[in-house]
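ugh ok fine here u go
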Amino acid sequence: MPNRLVLLALLVGVLTAPVHAQELPDHVGKVNDFAGVLDAGQRTALDAQLADLERATSAEVAVVTMRTLGGQTVEEYATALFNAWGIGKADRDNGVLILVALQERAMRIEVGYGLEGVLPDGLAGAVIRETFTPPFVAGDYRRGLLEGTARIIDIVRRNETLTPEQRAALDAAAAEAGKTWFVAAVASPFVAAAAFAFGTAAGARVVVQMLFGLVVAVGGVFGASLGEATRTSLALLVLLAVAVAVWGYRLGRRPKWRRAIRGSGKGAGGSSGWIVEASGSSSSSSSDSGSSSSGDFGGGSSGGGGASGHW
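structure:
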């Protein structure tokens, strides 16, 4: 019986252990560009800027790029890496970790306790939204990383503790940004479905269904704009609608889809001309879619503060 209990405990431990745990890399300096975003000269220059910041303020800022987080969330990985490396002075906890994960399209600014007054969550989120991620969306990771890190360096160097009013304003802005992206996210499946209906009907040349899909898709985008969605999220919503509509149009031109959409009424199946509306069922169950200087950190720990972002 004791042996069975031991085996059972081991089995439970295995089953409940995180399957996505990934061995953390060793740091090679303050700039750890494991994803190869920067060239050698840029890594050296950025490392020198971070070393100068440490000499001036004692604060330690680490920059890390990863190709993938191996299944972990950006928050989990950032906290584990921050504490494993000990970023910041042990007696001040004045460390900052800037983590960018390319495959997950996610980033995190993790802040030690000692700097949470200077770089609170709301300000970290604003830096992500305003400086890091816009170039990331355009695929320019190099510019986003350099400009975003430069802004973090400037904030830490100035060492200005934000007032409660300033922090409240930043928190409100962060909440509003989250809401506006949420509006676009909620609208996206409806807009995509309507755009697909428009595209397939256009390909099959069925007027009523095409107009219906167009009206609903445009209405969804307009509704998201009234919900104060961000310009970036609206642009992505429109791109999604266009891509789905093009895909649907190509499908609608295929004979099998045309027959399914146009129905079985007179002239509906074989004719390639326009019809006002489909006769019979318009549904289909088929689918034809086819190098930096090395150095140790000071033993600081994560304060649990900071912000995350996606693009």
